[in-house]
Amino acid sequence: MSSIIEIKNLSFAYGDGDDGIGETVLDGISLEIEEGSFTAVLGRNGCGKSTLAKHFNCINLPSGGSVCVLGMDTADEKNLFRIRSQAGMVFQNPDNQMVAALVEDEVAFAPENLGLEPEEIRRRVDEALETVGMSEYALRPSAGLSGGQKQRVAIAGVLAMKPKLIILDEATAMLDPKGRKEVMSAVTKINRMQGAAVVHITHYMEEAALADRVIVMDGGRIIMDDTPRRVFSRTEELKAVGLNVPQVTYAAHELKKAGINIRTDVLTVEELYRELTALRK
Asked: What's the order of all strands across the beta sheet hosting 221-226?
């Protein structure tokens, strides 16, 4: 499988300090993300994860090193439109993303800016709304939606571009549990059924457990990069950088400490239930 993102020795600094460089936020990151993959990026506030994500669609440009998306160098201005048309981004606050009064007009905004024919725009809007489960809201005002519904509309707007990469920059941070569940259900469906690569920046361990791969950042560097099961088995190391593990994983660790012979790398309620049921038998 080929890479959709290739990063080599990336460094990035905001502003200008006394030395003319400014505060370093990313420090020597090298990374590849494959087409069709689902990657979660974790880290405490200020670790650089959102700064990294903004390099994937040219909001940020490298201070040093290189970032290539779909084989295109983000530092080359000629690639800007092509990259952004294939790398859609959903941000934290859904209210800041809404540009149209009606839901279907919101979803049509991006494909209209791509210069598509009206018939193709109509087809894409209907398909995108169906994918995120918002078809019945097509003619409703965007302002009257819940937070979770607004984020699903924002994702539909990105989907209507037919991107190969979807970047979620803490897109569930301002949502209640129901809204987070709605958004993650839509995201996993898009990844599994349509093959779009997903990079999900999040503080929620249960969301990261849904990914194929988890990257943990601290101090502008990558300190872990593995499957969710292996990353979340490193409980003490995660605690040391201010992170937790999914609640079911924590429960399994506590049961183990209490002397119960149980696996500690469980990630879901179903896995924990199977472990406890096996003990009873």
From this structure: 87-90, 165-169, 197-201, 38-42, 213-218, 221-226
Distance CA 157, CA 246 (A): 30
Location of structure tokens 């991006």: 110
In contact, 110 and 157? CB cutoff 8 Å: yes
Q: Which of 99, 104, 55, 105 is nearest to 80 (CA)?
A: 55
Rounded Cα distance between 272 and 244, Å, is 18
* Rounded CA separation 216/183 (Å): 22
Distance from C-alpha of 108 to C-alpha of 100, rounded to nearest angstrom: 9
| Whole-number Å distance between alpha carbons of 171 and 150 | 11
Predicted TM-score (pTM) of this structure: 0.89
The 8-class DSSP code of residue 210 comes to T
Where are the alpha helices (H) located in the chain, listed in sequence order? Answer: 49-53, 80-84, 103-113, 118-131, 147-159, 177-189, 205-208, 228-232, 235-240, 247-257, 269-280
- pLDDT tens sequence across 60-115: 999 999 999 999 999 999 999 999 999 999 998 888 888 899 999 999 999 998 88
Pairwise CA distance, residues 58 & 182, whole Å:
28
The answer to whether 172 and 94 are in contact (CB under 8 A) is no
Question: Residue 118 contacts by C-beta under 8 Å, 6 or more apart in sequence?
Answer: none
Q: For the beta carbon of residue 136, count every other beta carbon within 10 angstroms.
A: 10
